[in-house]
Amino acid sequence: MPPVRAYRVAPGGTLRGEVRVPGDKSISHRAIMLGALADGDTVVTGFLEGADSLATLAAFRGMGVAIEGPEAGRMLIRGVGRDGLQAPSAPLDVGNAGTAMRLLCGLLAGQPFASKLVGDASLSRRPMRRVTEPLARMGADIETAEAGTAPLTIRPVSQLESIDYAMPVASAQVKSCLLLAGLYADGDTCVSEPAVTRDHTERMLATFGCRVRRQRQRVCVPGGARLTAAPVEVPADISSAAFFLVGASIAEGADVTLPAVGINPTRVGVLYILKAMGADIAVTNRRQCGAEPVADLRVRSARLQGIEIPAAQVPLAIDEFPALFVAAACADGETLLTGAEELRVKESDRIAVMAAGLAQLGVEAEVLPDGIRIQGRGAAPLGGGSVDSHGDHRIAMAFAMAALRASTPIVVRDCANVDTSFPGFAALAAGAGLGIDEAVA
């Protein structure tokens, strides 16, 4: 077996200077998908050259789409049109990319050819019935493994039927999957969500000329819509910025500026929660980056307070909770999160894995069925030791930042998957002042 990459992080220190985090992973996935289905050539800038989005790129090349690049975040997609994809000659392997698998499942359900989606061991444990069951109601023919997981075998059907679907659980991936399938349905496909989730798919569909209808938490797309190529600027990923937002908040004397970060209103829960905890974050130079709003974020060290996280903010910060749990560990008092069952079916059970790691650092954390209760240590330092990320990229980066408040070194094991969303994380963090080294564990 190949060696497992680990982080060894020295205790203490601070973060300072300008930190440019990579492009948004969610938007990078969607840029490839919609650019491939569009009529004409799409130029993408700021593309995330991480393993997850590169897996999506490889999948579309496997279906006959010519893509030049990426080079320094720029690529050119030669769109084949709504009906121009070709049958792949082999299973489409999306690695660890849950977004790619779920969104591709919807897109492929309407194709006139058979296909198979596979992923790595971690992705092959994640639930897929949340997309395959509503797709089956649209007439799709999709076979899962016995546990409702990948691999997914998708067989062609004569015509998908439109659906008006109320999601039982808020999920941008489910919503986006059904909207993409709706492009191949016989009428308007509508999805209602119980809470607001990220709306990158709707924004980009509209940019590509699709007539998207929104009414509160319900969105509809017309079947048979054709897309027209349009340039896509990918902003810096707020999910990647979150680690530096937390790190600079908890480190003494920290002062970090993060330029051109996406501040889509469906993604800014991390800003709301950190500010509610007392974080010193200034949002400046607001502007548009294509269809997405961006801003520069300046964050300085602050004394954080534990809070009860509002339910409305949970879906707006779902990917940032590993970092937020570290903030809670360094805060005064208790932080309570409920209504976050979705965290248990991410790349890992993020509630259980984070609680175990926090316990290793001397932080009291109670696991709840739908959340966690964390007793912050306030001004007291965290402990150190060895923490297992269970191959979850966001947990690995969160515990690396925890070392800023640790009394002894922290070793974070199983960090190879950080490259799925944040290639170059260790080097960038080291440049800002984190005492981090990569090692073999």
In short:
It is built from 12 helices and 24 strands. The chain is globular. Helix content is 28%, strand content 26%.
Descriptive key words:
single chain; 441 residues; alpha/beta; five-stranded mixed beta sheet; 12 helices; 28% helix
Tally of helical runs: 12
N/C terminus separation: 12 Å
Shape estimate? globular
Question: Low-confidence spans: pLDDT under 50, at least 5 residues?
Answer: none
* Average pLDDT taken over every residue: 96
Cα-atom radius of gyration: 21 Å
Reported for the largest beta sheet, the result is: 5 strands, mixed
> How much strand?
25-35%
Query: How many distinct beta strands?
Result: 24
Category by helix and strand content: alpha/beta
Structural description of this entry:
This protein has helices at about 25-35, 50-60, 100-110, 130-135, 170-180, 200-205, 240-250, 270-275, 320-330, 350-360, 395-400, 425-430, and strands at about 5-10, 15-20, 40-45, 65-70, 75-80, 90-95, 115-120, 140-145, 150-155, 165, 190, 215, 220, 225-230, 230-235, 255-260, 280-290, 290-300, 335, 365-370, 370-375, 385-390, 410-415, 435-440. With about 450 residues, the chain is α/β, with parallel strands linked by helices. Strands 3, 4, 5, 14 and 15 form a five-stranded mixed β-sheet that branches. The model has no long low-confidence stretch (mean pLDDT about 95).
Topology record:
Blueprint: E1 5-9, E2 16-18, H1 25-37, E3 38-45, H2 51-61, E4 66-71, E5 74-80, E6 92-93, H3 98-109, E7 115-118, H4 129-137, E8 141-143, E9 152-155, E10 164-166, H5 172-182, E11 188-192, H6 200-207, E12 213-215, E13 218-222, E14 227-228, E15 232-233, H7 238-250, E16 255-262, H8 269-276, E17 280-289, E18 292-300, H9 321-329, E19 334-337, H10 350-360, E20 364-368, E21 371-375, E22 385-388, H11 393-402, E23 410-413, H12 425-432, E24 436-440
Parallel strand pairs: 2-16, 3-14, 3-15, 6-7, 10-11, 22-23
Antiparallel strand pairs: 1-23, 1-24, 3-5, 4-5, 7-9, 8-9, 11-13, 12-13, 16-18, 17-18, 19-21, 20-21
Helix pairs in contact: 1-2, 1-6, 3-5, 4-5, 7-9, 7-11, 9-10, 9-11
